[in-house]
Specification:
The protein is mainly alpha-helical. Helix content is about 60%, strand content about 0%. It has helices at about 5-25, 40-50, 65-80, 85-100, 110-115, 125-130, 140-145, 145-150, 155-170, 175-190, 200-215, 230-240, 250-255, 265-275, 290-300, 305-320, 325-330, 335-350. Helix 14 (about 265-275) crosses helix 15 (about 290-300). Bound molecules: ADP-ribosyl-L-arginine and magnesium ion (2 copies). The site of one magnesium ion has 6 residues, from helix 3 and helix 16. One of its GO terms (biological process) is peptidyl-serine ADP-deribosylation. InterPro entries: ADP-ribosylglycohydrolase, Ribosyl_crysJ1, Ribosyl_crysJ1_sf. Its cofactor is Mg(2+). This is ADP-ribosylhydrolase ARH3.
Length: about 350
């Protein structure tokens, strides 16, 4: 694609943040449940249909930690006109103490307490101490990374470096950090593609594999059993996407890619959901590929809000805001704020 039309790019910025919000809000009710039965998938289908219906006056669905932290990342980038690790750490802590009941990870709250107690003198120490010094391998660094992918979309090196540094505030385990980097690269790739052209899912995956090849280097000599676990997962993903017919059963997808709270077993799953939803999925009745992405992600069970949010961020960056149904979005808390943040990021990133 040549130089992208500015209106399309603006719509893609909005699509990515609103897609992330939508996945989080709609997935939150199901978080922690097993992979769903056919009956439960029908319940989810009906729930989405109802939300999309014109006259449904349901209460607005609240967002969780995924969106609270995404908002904090976006606000910090905007207020500092770029990345400032201490500023972002303060944003996370402030956001947490204002609304501690947003369903934060059990471990990450310890980081917030320690950061507040050390008055941000040591911004990276608390995260390093997590899980007996192993660091968190949770998907918290990945679930909030969309604003960084957007802000630095023109400079891949800076984007990767910033995705890494923002993770380090709470997550230091290599797979927690590399998951955030992979999610950022997937959003950037989607942002730069033309949604009017058919997406080459194999090429999309191969590009991710090539990028992770540069990232997954065991620089610290950790002697890992699998030194490139994301490449391994992405190769599994590629095989799943290429299966004939209606594709693999959901059980196989969950078994191979995972659906849990670890970054390694959720980021590739979110990417798979986006790629799979390029085509109709028999159990999911909608013509809208963005809704299909989010609904499919949630139907896999497990960490539904986070996988839904990450898949929504990638899909929204590809399709743009036009593919997000306003009837659904009006049921998601603070969507106006997320649109405003996307516009501010767009202006800064394209200035
Ligand atoms: N916390 C949740 N869901 C729990 C239920 C919420 C419920 N609906 C409610 O409202 O109360 N979801 C959120 O947490 C995930 C992101 O977590 P994050 O930010 O990565 O946090 P943390 O605590 O660092 O890691 C999460 C868990 O992963 C396990 N873990 C991490 N590193 C580990 C290690 N090195 N060894 C062993 N276990 C490790 C721990 O169980 C952590 O608590 C998202 O799903 C978000 O939606
Ligand atoms: Mg959550
Ligand atoms: Mg979650």
């Amino acid at each position: 694609m040549g130089k992208m039309d500015s209106l399309l790019l603006k719509s893609k910025f909005r699509g990515s943040l609103l897609g992330a919000l939508m996945g989080d809000c709609l997935g939150s009710a199901y978080e922690g449940d097993e992979l769903f039965s056919a009956g439960m998938k029908l319940v989810i289908q009906k729930s989405f249909d109802k939300l999309q219906g014109p006259h449904f006056k349901a209460p607005v669905i609240q967002f969780t930690d995924d969106s609270a932290m995404t908002r904090a990342v976006a606000e910090s980038l905007i207020e500092c006109t770029g990345f400032d690790q201490t500023h972002m750490a303060k944003k996370f802590v402030k956001s947490y103490y204002l609304e501690p009941n947003r369903g934060y990870g059990a471990g990450v709250t310890t980081v917030f307490h320690k950061l507040r107690n050390n008055k941000f003198v040591d911004v990276l120490g608390p995260a390093r101490e997590q899980f007996n010094g192993e660091g968190s391998l949770g998907n918290g660094g990945a679930m909030r990374v969309a604003p960084i992918a957007l802000f630095y979309y023109k400079n891949s090196e800076l984007m990767v470096d910033t995705a890494r540094k923002q993770s380090h505030i709470t997550h230091t385990h290599k797979t927690g950090v590399d998951g955030a980097i992979l999610q950022a690269i997937a959003i950037q790739q989607s942002l730069l593609l033309d949604p009017k052209e058919e997406l080459d899912t194999c090429k999309f995956t191969d590009n991710l594999i090539n990028e992770m090849d540069k990232i997954e280097i065991d620089e610290e000599g950790l002697g890992l059993v699998d030194p490139s676990p994301y490449k391994t997962q992405l190769k599994l993903l590629r095989n799943l996407i290429c299966e004939d017919g209606d594709g693999p059963h959901d059980e196989k997808v969950v078994h191979q890619l995972g659906n849990d709270v670890s970054a390694l077993h959720s980021v590739p799953t979110a990417i798979y959901c986006f790629l799979k939803a390029q085509k109709p999925i028999p159990a999911i009745q909608t013509e809208n590929p963005l809704r299909r992405t989010v609904q499919y992600a949630i139907s896999l069970g497990g960490d539904t809000d986070t996988i839904g949010s990450m898949a929504g961020a990638i899909a929204g960056a590809f399709y743009g805001e036009e593919m997000i149904r306003p009837e659904i979005l009006k049921h998601c808390e603070t969507s106006d704020k997320f649109r405003e943040l996307a516009d501010q990021l767009f202006h800064l990133a394209t200035a």
